[in-house]
Specification:
Helix 13 packs parallel to helix 14 and helix 16 crosses helix 17. The chain has a 5-stranded parallel beta sheet with strand order 3-2-4-5-6. It has a 4-stranded parallel beta sheet with strand order 13-14-15-16, covered by helices on one side. The relative contact order is 0.10. Helix 3 links the parallel strand 4 and strand 5. Helices cover about 35% and strands about 15% of the residues. The protein has 3 domains: about 160 residues, Rossmann fold, CATH 3.40.50.280; about 100 residues, 2-Layer Sandwich (Transcription Regulator spoIIAA), CATH 3.30.750.210; about 160 residues, 2-Layer Sandwich (Transcription Regulator spoIIAA). It is α/β, with parallel strands linked by helices. Bound molecules: iron/sulfur cluster. The site of iron/sulfur cluster (SF4) has 10 residues, from loops.
């Protein structure tokens, strides 16, 4: 693959260094838009005794040297979504890397948001680096090479999760170099910047909200340096990634400065309540033509159940104001399959979208079923069922022309998200094809009853392995609040003593 990149540091000669293949389970363009992947890549290469080279799914060879995976001493994989796990297995198999760890010479370490439940990976990988990896990925690489033979099937997974204090939160003092590529998933020569990490709001379905809480902001000078480096490296647009970008106290100033410099920017998503008239003006001056917000649902009852309280009339008002200020479209993220949901709740979502459409702005609605995530209060929620998802999808597509998710994909994603070691065996049997019938017959061959991963109040074995800092007691209380429809305030209004900041 021919690369056109600027700003990649020269990490120098390292005779005798550990050679790491760092794999992203997506295309080159997606890898270059992944701050998590590029952060770990830089951290590995900054270590004096490690050399890491990039692998992406659209190239069988390393981007740096043009060599196959087997030419490296160790493989590190960053996994961001559950459905990337089958993709990575396919890639490893295509490179003739045995998938079962006991059949393989070369060790594999995985990390990233989709590894907060590491159990389905137990038959496959040698170690899981859980949590924010900047501070411990180099030690994990050294540790696995030194101790791999002593580690047992189960304790290997625990190796990197046993000490909560060690891995729980990175202080954001580190930022990756502002490498710019000619081509990335979100645009040409984009500079990716993370102004903050985590979130204060505690939406009960959100993995990031429960594994990276509370929100931590980067220093203004660090953000400005990051942007300046990116522009110097031929960057043409700044793309900000975070759960609550506009919650950063200096973000308005940063965006205003970019507007004055005529540097276009884009934001991954925005909280509705941050979008004042002044902020809309700042965003327009930065060249934004579209806004994305996530009301998720529309009835008061369900807002309380998911702990996200965005008023419907506020969304309609935002659409009017955005249209007046010249924005072309408003993208809405919506959810269904919330415990206690009724037909009337679905009708209310449709009504909300229709009300927004009436303002005249171009509306793009994306409607997805809840996929229960480990360590969130929704980890005890039932999978809503393929037939139910199909029927809601039909209404959403017909009545508001929404984009929807394939129900059978949602089923497979839930099995992986809520899986255990036996789901790891299922993955090994079924990874080649995400076809539903194929997965069902593979489960039957293994004698695996899939209903236990789908039902309400399922077992949550990942809680014994990975520690997010949130106590079991707090999670149970939040699950009760889902049943009762009660809100919990965000961290900046009142600390609810979840266990993270004051263990
Ligand atoms: S301890 Fe309090 S402030 Fe910290 S994350 Fe939990 S609820 Fe938020």
């Amino acid at each position: 693959m021919k690369l056109k990149e600027w700003g990649m540091p020269d990490w120098g000669e390292k005779p005798g260094a550990i050679r790491v293949a760092h794999v992203y389970p997506g295309t080159y363009k997606e890898a270059m838009a992944s701050l998590g992947y590029m952060t770990i890549f830089s951290k590995l290469n900054e270590a004096e005794d490690i050399v890491a080279h990039r692998f992406v799914l659209d190239s069988p060879f390393s981007l740096e040297e043009g060599l196959p995976l087997r030419a490296y001493g160790l493989i590190v994989v960053s996994i961001h979504f559950d459905l990337q796990i089958p993709l990575i297995l396919k890639y490893l198999a295509s490179q003739k890397i045995p998938l079962r760890k006991e059949e393989r010479e070369i060790p594999i370490i995985v990390g990233g948001p989709a590894t907060w439940n590491p159990l389905p990976l137990v038959p496959i990988v040698d170690a899981v680096s859980i949590g924010e990896g900047e501070d411990h990925i180099a030690d994990a690489v050294r540790g696995i090479l030194e101790h791999r033979k002593e580690w047992t099937h189960r304790s290997v997974v625990n190796t990197w999760v046993k000490n909560r204090a060690e891995f729980a939160r990175h202080d954001l003092s580190y930022r990756p170099p502002a490498v710019v590529s000619e081509t990335t998933a979100y645009g040409r020569r984009a500079v990716y910047v993370e102004p903050s990490r985590g979130c204060n709001f505690g939406c009960r379905f959100c993995l990031i909200g429960w594994t990276k809480r509370p929100r931590r902001d980067r220093r203004l000078s660090q953000i400005l340096d990051w942007i300046a480096d990116g522009l110097e490296n031929n960057g043409e647009k700044i793309y900000f990634f975070a759960s609550d970008i506009l919650g950063h106290p200096h973000m308005e100033k940063v965006l205003e400065t970019l507007g004055e410099m005529n540097v276009p920017f884009s934001l991954s998503s925005m909280r509705y309540d941050r979008l004042t008239d002044e902020m809309l003006d700042v965003l327009r001056r930065g060249g934004l033509k579209s806004i994305t917000v996530a009301p998720e649902t529309a009835s008061r009852e369900l807002k309380a159940r998911i702990n996200k309280n965005i008023p419907n009339d506020g969304i309609v008002d935002l659409a009017k104001r955005a249209k007046r200020k010249g924005f072309r479209s408003l993208k809405l993220y919506l959810l269904f399959g919330i415990p206690g949901e009724t037909e009337g709740d679905i009708t209310e979502i449709i009504k909300l979208v229709k009300d927004v459409q009436k303002t005249g702005i171009n509306v793009r609605a994306s409607v997805n079923p809840i996929i229960p995530k480990p360590h969130t209060p929704m980890q005890w929620a039932a999978f809503p069922g393929i037939d139910y998802i199909k029927s809601v999808n039909k209404r959403m597509e017909r009545e508001i022309r929404a984009n929807t998710m394939n129900p059978k994909r949602a089923f497979i994603q839930t099995i992986i998200s809520m899986g255990d070691e036996q789901v790891g065996e299922l993955l090994l049997h079924a990874y080649r094809d995400l076809n539903y019938a194929h997965w069902i017959s593979a489960a039957q061959e293994l004698g695996l009853d899939l209903s236990r991963y789908l039902r309400e109040s399922r077992e949550t074995p990942w809680r014994e392995i990975a520690d997010t800092g949130v106590t079991d007691e707090f999670l149970h209380k939040e699950w009760e609040k889902i049943q009762m429809g009660e809100f919990t305030p965000p961290c900046h209004e009142r600390c609810s003593l979840c266990g993270v900041c004051f263990p």
